[in-house]
Amino acid sequence: MGAILTALSTMGAIVALGWVLGRRGTLGPAAPAVLARVVFAVATPCLLLVTVAHADLHLLLSRAALVTALSTTTVVLVAVAVLRGLWHRPAADVTVATLASSYVNAGNLGLPLAVYLLGDAVAVVPSLLYQLLVLAPVAFAVLDARAPREPGPAPTAEPPAAPDGPQRPPTAPGVPPDAPPTVSPVPGRRPRRGALVLRAVLLRTLRNPIIVGALAGLLLAALPWSPPEVLLGPFAIVGAAAAPLALLTFGMSLAVPRTVDARPVRRELVLVVALRSLVHPLLAGGIGAALGLEGAALLGVTAMAALPTAQNVLVYAIQYGRQQPLARDAGLVTTVLAVPVLLGITAVLG
Questions:
Q1: Cα separation of 45 and 52, whole Å?
Q2: Which key words are in the record (predicted)?
């Protein structure tokens, strides 16, 4: 209980500071967008590189990892089925809402909670790795594919109008104009549109700084030797700013006066909160018990599934300009609900 309250109160203090800064306008009106870009493009990639580089990849084959993968994937499928299949929301909006339903605050709250509640940070690693290596790449592939493209250059002049009458193609030098036309060789088959779209999506995804940071960390973790700390030290220092800056951004977003356009759709918020705070921990606990997890192992996967929506989801929403009110309110409501939910899980399984 003390661990939960300590971690949440620390986060709340930083969010409150961000609210005061936003309310007073200390950093200017563009501060939330600028801080979100710093977190997205610099701090979070550094944090992911260091975190994944030090992770034990063998945990990907554990029963806890299987429970995390099955429960999280089920939440994702339910969110997509309702948002896209029933409510016909745009793909980019569905992606952000799905992240708000499934992307937990494993770094800011999960790490201290695992240490204080279970005595070991290993419990949070399956959630971190699944989010970094599966959820994030798929989500950013969709968001990057739906991102608005830069307009191409406008034509400088109208093309000349074709003269009346049938036209012959120009002939090669030395060939009489009245010679019969020759059939040009058949050019090579052009790439299919689907292949071109897939290639463009892959290129945009691989240029995403968060994906680059996670893949670089995965490469370092797979090496047979540990990289020296002098190499990872600068990334660790910059990455340490990701969590407080994301919380400050979250606090400043709460200080913005609410308008009709700044409010999320109520049914979407209810769906996200229900999936995040109730359905996911119930799924994790049930699947974990079915797979034979007991004691601290079952408590760990269930508690990690009950964590609130990560503040990074709001950063991603700001970065791509989609579903910002939903990401903001989902982070706030699920964080408040995390206290009774986690206390109840601890009382039942602890």
A1: 11
A2: Cell membrane, Membrane, Transmembrane, Transmembrane helix, Transport
Q: How many domains does the chain have?
A: 1
Q: Which residues are CB-contacts of 232 (< 8 A; sequence separation ≥ 6)?
A: 49, 50, 53
Tell me the CA distances in angstroms from 50 to 115, 122, 200, one per residue in order.
Answer: 19, 15, 28
Mean pLDDT of 1-18: 77
In a domain, 163, yes or no: no
Whether the per-residue pLDDT at 318 is higher than 70: the answer is yes
In percent, the amount of the chain with pLDDT more than 70 equals 77
Closest to 39 in 3D by CA, of 213, 254, 266, 166: 213
The number of residues making up the chain comes to: 350
Does residue 265 belong to any structural domain of this protein?
yes
Query: What is the DSSP code (8-state) at residue 310?
Result: P
Residue 42: count other Cβ atoms within 10 Å of its Cβ.
Answer: 17
Cα–Cα nearest to 57, from 251, 171, 300, 219: 219
CA angle 145, 333, 111 (to 5 degrees): 80
Say how many C-beta atoms besides its own lie within 10 A of residue 139's C-beta.
26
Residue 205 lies in a domain: yes
Question: In which band, very low, low, confident or very high, does the pLDDT at 282 lie, cut at 50, 70 and 90?
Answer: very high
Q: Is 89 left (phi over 0), alpha (psi -120 to 50) or beta?
A: beta
Indicate whether 321 belongs to any domain.
yes
Q: Write the CATH number for 242.
A: 1.20.1530.20
Residues in CB range of 50: below 8 A, 6 or more apart = 217, 232, 235, 236, 239
More confident residue, 347 or 274: 274
